[in-house]
Automatic annotation (TrEMBL):
Name by which UniProt lists this protein: Outer membrane protein beta-barrel domain-containing protein
Length: 245
């Protein structure tokens, strides 16, 4: 299977500890990294099949990438969150159809509105917005029956709605759980994550979480050269740092 499928990433919802509002707004800037594994099915034209990629494969083929989240919250409880991640993968690969030279660029952007509630000491955040995918894949098949070049570009946007829950375990530790679902230009997309935040410093938090992100997208007519399918689940450990101001 071409390594063009390696670039599915995800943009994660990282939420450091909220601050008491000194003015009207509090903000969080949170860079993060993800070590994903990928499983599912992907098809470029008439070339496709099952996908099973581990974190070592992703890092071996990584040429560039970055992940960043920005959140703002008003003292009324309303706020927003922006999340952007991109990954550029390009390297040689092998598959049952022959040797492949793959180049893959993928970005995911999320923009949501949020509302924070307090339920018996637990923090609950409702959110709704959009998740946008942008994928540019090119595979040069060097040997085998399907020798040639396959190019596919796809971008799509899905409305999403979700919930985030947090509980304070100690003055320094928080437990966090989150999930959302959506559907629009894709058949279905979903996100689930959970983990811990360490609030050791006044304006800085460290996160360790596990996340799974799924999407089922199809474009074109199956069996033709224009067909593109992306039905995968990406999951793995996420680590990040949140700076509050």
């Amino acid at each position: 299977m071409p390594r063009t499928v390696l670039a599915l990433t995800v943009g994660f919802l990282l939420q450091p500890q909220p601050m008491a509002a000194q003015d009207k707004w509090d903000f969080v800037v949170a860079p993060y990294v993800l070590a994903p594994s990928i499983g599912g099915t992907t098809t470029l034209g008439r070339i496709g099949g099952d996908v099973s990629i581990d974190p070592g494969d992703v890092w071996k083929n990584l040429e560039s990438g970055g992940m960043l989240r920005i959140e703002g919250r008003h003292e009324t409880g309303f706020g927003f969150a922006l999340d952007y991640s991109f990954m550029d993968l390009g390297n040689g690969a092998s598959s049952p159809i022959g040797d492949i030279r793959a180049d893959y660029n993928q970005s995911v952007f999320e923009a949501v509105a949020t509302y924070q509630m307090d339920r018996n000491g637990d923090q609950v955040d409702l959110y709704a917005g959009l998740r946008h995918w942008d994928i540019d894949a090119k595979a040069n098949i060097l040997t085998g029956p399907a020798t040639g070049q396959v190019n596919h570009k796809a971008n799509w946007t899905d409305p999403i709605i979700g919930l985030r829950w947090q509980r304070r375990l100690s003055p320094e530790w928080r437990l966090m759980m989150q999930g959302d679902v959506g559907s629009g230009e894709s058949e279905f997309t979903w996100n689930a994550m959970g983990g811990f935040a360490y609030d050791r410093w006044e304006n800085t938090s460290v996160f360790i979480m596990y996340r799974a992100l799924g999407v089922d997208y199809e474009k074109g007519t199956q069996g033709t050269s224009s067909y593109f399918e992306y039905d995968t689940v990406t999951q793995g450990i996420l680590a990040g740092v949140g700076f509050r101001f």
